[in-house]
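Sequence in, structure out.
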Amino acid sequence: MATKRSAPSNFTSGPPGQRPRQGSFGGPREVAQPKPGQFVVKILLAAPEASSVLGQGGATCREISQTTGTRPHLSGRHEFYPGTSLQELSIRGTTQDAIMNALFQALNKICEDCSRICGSDPDVTEPGDCRVRILVPSQAARAIIGKGGENIKTLRQACNLHIHVQEASVGRGELAEQTVQLQGQLAAIQMGIPNILEKTAECMEQAWFTNWAVISYAGSGMEAPSSKGKGKGKGKGKGKGQDGDHPAPGGYSDAGGALASSGSMLATALAALPASVSDLSSRNHSVTTACPSTCVSGVIGKGGVGTREIANLTGAKVMIRDIEGTDTDKSVIIVGSAPGVAAAYLMVTARIAATLDYAAKAGPITNGEGPTQEAS
């Protein structure tokens, strides 16, 4: 009787196929066999980015595996990392160089196919811009920050890179991990990654590292990570942000001070929307905000180019109306889908702020627009 043999492949993924072993409910899953001396890098990807790395029928991932001697693993389509709508890509191998080579190939492929790496963050809009999230053990996170934030500041200056270590951790004890967010051009991120891998590799001699290298919290059903205590930075860091660029509790950023990521906030909010609300074809959501009359022309743009651009990018309609009883402000009404309205609101706010900044430097702006303008 002939024995059925499967085609050899170094690529593994989530369902369909055999599910990795899982411990107690809500705990991490083993996605590979523990092997002493095995190194790993773990990153988070949005669905289009994960599809790019996977390739048709897994072809791209197999090619990366074969050319680097590494073993990639991608969580299933609906196996998201806690608190996100992102899949986890882990790459295992015996040397840092091989893993770094495989990671660079994956990132280059994503940029080639998607023009950017953003993890679904709507504020990463320019081609070539990247925001990469790397998962590291909490012990490595402290080393990445460095004493008084020294290592993270050096990285920023040397690579022209924004780096943030999220204070909130996923998991417990020695298997806890944190997210390191790198933001900048792809070349800058590739300059910073070796340092992140080095600090992670320093943990390889610890007994727990072999287990951390083969587990994944993606699809575990765990709750979203939350900062503990009073929001003090890990590893003597002074920052109090939570994953990026704007104030919120927890974390350490190279910029110093309290920072949290607009992208992370928006991605979390979008992930929480039910399908009926996140439908981009919906037109039953609206937001009304005020705009100084002197900024109307800046929002609309020459010949309406500003509001048309917003409409094209978000699918939302931007209308400007008079406010009864005042000439100093206009009413901006944005109508469209919930995600579209939110994105358009931020774009309108950005144009208002840019116009005010210009006015502060160049003098008053005369609003030559009529009392009612509307974007088609």
